[in-house]
User: What shape does this take?
Amino acid sequence: MISIGQLPPEYGGYSSQQNANALPSVQDPDKVYEAMTRQDYLDYQKNYRGFEDGLIDKAQNDTSLIDAARTDSANAMGLMSGVSDRNASRYGVELTPAQRQERRRSLARANTLGTSQSLGDARVAQQEANQRQLSDLINIGQGVNRSSLSQMGSAAADATQRKNAYDSAKAASKAQTYSTLGSLGSMAIMAMAF
Amino acid sequence: MSSKPKKQDYEASAAEKTSASVAMADHKYFKEKYDPLLQQMRDESLTDRATDRLRGRANADTMQALTKPSYARAAGGADGGDMAQAYLGQLGIANTSGKEIQNTMQTNVLGTARGQAADASSGMAQASRLATSSALTRAKNKQAVADAKFTAVGQVAGAALAQGLDNMGSTGERDTGKTTPDGKPIMEKTQGGFFSPTNKEGQKVKGFKNRLAYSEFFS
Assistant: This one.
């Protein structure tokens, strides 16, 4: 496997002994381009393939917003009850048992309402976030696909052109051979006749 | 007859060579400088740092707006519910915004790695919108109204108390209708009560018109 920077100079790779300010000398751009393209793909596989697979999976199955809303709701009641208690003790307020009970009830009611609202909101937000990420990923994939098709189209066109050139050259060579043979034959006949 | 083709006649021009050299140098520079940065961004996008930061901000906003010490709320004891709703609403917005930032960052990283366009903004500016979520505003308004009511009641009660004390401090002299042996009228000192003052003539001031005249409000 050839990687950029390891290309021997005879294949067009640059030499590491070159002056840092000087441009690397590229003897064979074709080979260097081949090495660059290959190395880029290997780098992508090593550094980003797993990441990409993870994103595709996450865009389809992520529930982190809903999970967070559940956890937050469970914590909110205790937290706000503590805030109310501290506020009451700061002013030395003594609530009657009935007031305390009403406060608990009111807090629980509000918490239940808050929980259902935040869970509902989280579900909508989660769906939207996943959908948007999936669309973005599909756009990226579509772009990559477009580039690949264009690259492949170019390679196929080059191959066809080469094949045609080869066929033409072969035909021309054959024609040349026959023509030479014909010339030689006619020269021989003429030599024997006269 | 023409001579054999020479290899040097088919060599790249100086411009082509330089162009290839620049391309090579730029590619190498990109690999050395930008690729590690992109990998750093990839790793960063896998953490929940943006969400944590926004949650911290949301928490601070909620607490700052809704936990100002207040005797009225302490005595009422029913403000925890509004706070819980506002708190959950704020955290929900923080989570959603954090997720959006994370997702944008991730697709940007992948888009760049795959040679596609990346969106330059991270969406962190959304953090500024957190402070004005409807739940927090609603709870804040509710608290402001409750505080204003409490203050108004306090002001009215204070004014009534001050006026009552003022009334009690008013004094006058009332003619008892009796006279002294030397013929002088016997006067009796009078003092106002809490709800009605006494005028100079020692009479209780009663009725709206008399009270208004006594107050000298329009004089």
